[in-house]
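Q: I have 421 residues here and want to know how they pack in 3D. Can you give me a structure?
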Amino acid sequence: MLYERWQSVAAQHRDRHALRSLGEERAWTFAELAAAVDSLPPTDAEVIFPSGGGSSFIVETLRAWRDERILCPLEKGQQPPGIAGLPPEIRHIKTTSGTTGAPRLIAFTEAQMAADAENIVATMGLAPDSPNLGVISLAHSYGFSNLVLPLALHGIPLVLASAPLPETVRVALLTGNNWTLPAVPALWQTWRDTGVIPDKIRVAISAGAPLPIELERSVFRESGLKIHNFLGSSECGGIAYDRTNAPRDDAADVGTAMENVRVTTAEDGRLSVSSRAVASTYWPDPEPQLRDGVFVLGDLAEIHDGSIRLLGRAGDRINVAGRKVSPESIERTLLTHPAVTACLVFGVSATATGRNEEIVAVVAGAEELKEDLKRHLARALPAWQTPRHWNFVAELKPNARGKLPHAEWRRRFLESRANEA
């Protein structure tokens, strides 16, 4: 199915530019890319593991489709997982980020992968005359569905930057017009701070982590560019997209459901997603939150007039003297302070029984901000939601998937407290 679709796309656009790798200083038309794949001998491998950020990732993906092999994209340096005994209809395996536990394998059919690409292209208005600039990981669910699949299944050209560094991106954007640029908040922050955001971007997308309201507003104010917040999950692909043309007023607002996607709230308040793009199952151990075309996230949500507001993860709420608070609500408020570029919040046990917790905030910034940040929070949140402990650091780096490592910083805090005891 996928390879036949690619062959049709390649024939339809045969003389148009398909792929350009700035790091390799090479470019391919659709016909040339198809020929590069056809020239490869059949593979005997049951599973193909493309990795890296160059043209070989694209070629290996198409080769797997051609030879009807299972595809399992990997981050650079990631060890291939053991994969065996899959149902015959499974053709794609994703690995979860592991931010809420050990990484798991997620099994997809070809039709499910194609449906995700269809939803993304239709919702975001992606088009062959608006090439994607690839600066995010091709192996991650976000990059694969927003960059690789639109190229192969919808004829949307892809230009691969050698790195997301400001100067590299600035030079890359000078090579064309009418760009689509999917990125993560940390990259948008860096590009804004270094002044490399030009007027040649048609669609600006941010996913992988919450997009701070102040960042969204400042980019719009300085360049007129609207960054569209995109919510997705490895288990179901795209979920929601902010279609509006002006900055949001509410950081908890993640937009409205993608085309062909239905969202509701489960009985316990968690967000439930139904679509043809939802994965078949976790492998090898199925779980009830992912089955029969439905995925129930760990995020609490409310839906009003189609707009989705995330209220924090169901299992991450901090118990402060019997009252529950979502770390995300505190993080969102901190990020509205103009001096805060990144932060994370978590709870730690305040007693030996663990029945009560204290709030810890890790903030990228100077310690002199502490009292001002307390006042800033007090204007928006109840006093009991002000963090008890503060840790100011030079920077907070997201991981390869654009997420801040809460578990790692919580571990560091607990180790530091144990050393002081």
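Q: Anything worth noting?
A: The first helix runs from residue 2 to 12. The chain has eleven helices and 24 strands.
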